[in-house]
Design brief:
Blueprint (H helix, E strand, L loop, with lengths): L2 E4 L5 H6 L3 E4 L2 E7 L2 E2 L2 E2 L5 H18 L7 E8 L5 H12 L5 E6 L10 E8 L6
Parallel strand pairs: 6-7
Antiparallel strand pairs: 1-2, 2-3, 3-8, 4-5, 6-8
Helix pairs in contact: 2-3
């Protein structure tokens, strides 16, 4: 099976050695994604707005890989303050209410920029297609 790398254009991709997403066969993984524009945090101080921007970026990555949010089977949500769990969870529900992927939400000590409050990663499987 071939590996298809999907880039977001992040300057960190070549430095750290990662891709925004990778597709192998019918499986797609989207790397940890934050709410950023030109590597700068957006919606500073608003975890729900950051979650929304992050999930929009993730949706775009799945689209480039030939999938959609309907194909998502697992998400992992990292928040820097567990008090944001409900607000971020509601946004997750807006995007995945019918899909209901397996999900884990964790509080972490921090992200590379202290203005980032949320990071999300996601995995998908496209059912019924061949590479």
């Amino acid at each position: 099976m071939s590996r298809v790398l999907i880039s977001s254009g992040s300057p960190f991709e070549p430095i750290v050695g990662f891709s925004r997403a990778m597709r192998v066969g019918n499986s797609i993984s989207v790397a940890g994604t934050t709410a950023a524009s030109s590597s700068k945090p957006v919606a500073i101080g608003d975890a729900a707005a950051q979650a929304r921007a992050t999930l929009e970026t993730i949706s775009e990555a799945f689209g480039k890989a030939g999938a959609s949010l309907n194909d998502v089977v697992r998400t992992r949500v990292y928040v820097t303050d567990i008090a944001d769990f409900e607000a971020v969870g509601r946004v997750h529900g807006e995007f995945f209410g019918e899909v209901r992927p397996a999900n884990t939400t964790l509080q972490i000590a921090g992200l590379p920029d202290p203005d980032w409050l949320v990071e999300i990663e996601a995995d998908a499987v496209i059912v019924g297609t061949a590479e």
